[in-house]
Here is the input.
Amino acid sequence: MFDGTTPNVVTPDAMTEGRRYSMLEQAIAMAGALSDEPDFSTFENKTGLAEDMKFLASMPELCDVTFLVGDTREPVCAVKAVLAARSRVFHKLLYNSYSPQKKKEPMSREKKIKLFLKRSSEPLMNLQGQQQGRQGPQGNVHQTLIVEEFEPDVFRQLIEYIHTGCVTLQPRTLLGLMNAADYYGLDELRKGCSGFVQCCINVDTVCALLASAERYIQYKCTKSMVQKVLEFVDEHGNEVLNLGSFTLLPQHVVRLIMAREELRADEFTKFQAGLMWSKKHCDNQPNTDLKEVIGNFLEYIQFYKIPANILMKEIHPLGLVPYHIIMNALAYQADPSSIDLVKLSPNRTRRSHDRGMSVQSDHLGSNTTLSSSASSEMESGRHSSEGAIGGGGGSSPLSHGREM
Here is the structure.
């Protein structure tokens, strides 16, 4: 039925125009999307760069500075420009340590005229001369410097980090590397070492950390970590004292550990640890007497706490502990009121007054050691025996006693 209205008719031209308009919109949208995408890409190969820089530092012919490190003067090569860019301390050391420049003599009028004529006629040579002047008198000279503060392995790791930005942290060299990073102004490396110390203190590493702490005790970073290491030793006393690596610690560090009231170790274990350390020392130095060596530790052992059967079957037959010490211990166990406890443990009373840890230096400041306030009180009366009896692996005297 026809209702009188005109129907909407879409002509072919209108349809074509609509398609064109739709395609135009799509093209504009696509162009906008493409314009949002970056027209560049960043490619990184940090691993390759680190390997190349590590190779660079390992080739002496490519380096322009050599450090003779430690007592053995072991050579460690590096590139001055890299060191200076990464450390202000190295920059000052390598580029501001030249000898004072000589005062220039006043130039006569005749020389000034000759120099002016020469510069005017030879502009290229003049430019080269100015460039050499900026480099300084030692610009192309290979430098050799002595580093006595750190061990070769520690300094080599430091140089590796400076050149490559990465280094493998190890308990044996950790404290040395941390102090070297602090000394040369590498804060990120120092923080990394400090964080790793918190994680790596365990039974397997504690003796290595204590040994390196003895070497670097004059540095402030070491002092902040030693107490944490000693607290771990206190908590795991029996395990630490039974370690084979315990025999490698210096004598005064062993005495420091055994003297601590907080040490959770039974007295017989302490005796065995002292005996083990003394035997190792006598093996390294055959002319020393075992009884004399172990005598340095007996004052820190409370023999009256060791069961009587162990005293008589295990300790007395060795002939290393004076007879009166064993008899007093047995008498106290039989009747505690018969023996004054102060006589059995004279150092226990003395140590209770002051339990602080300190750094002991001689009057010239030439020798610094890790010690405790209690054990240092007895040092004056023990110098004669200390001169003949050193650490298990040799005492580690330090080059100077000032704090770095």
In short: Confidence is low (pLDDT under 50) at residues 98-104, 121-139, 352-368, 373-403. The CA atoms of residues 43 and 353 lie 65 Å apart. The longest helix spans residues 12-36. Strands lie at 65-69, 74-78, 143-147, 357-361, 368-372.
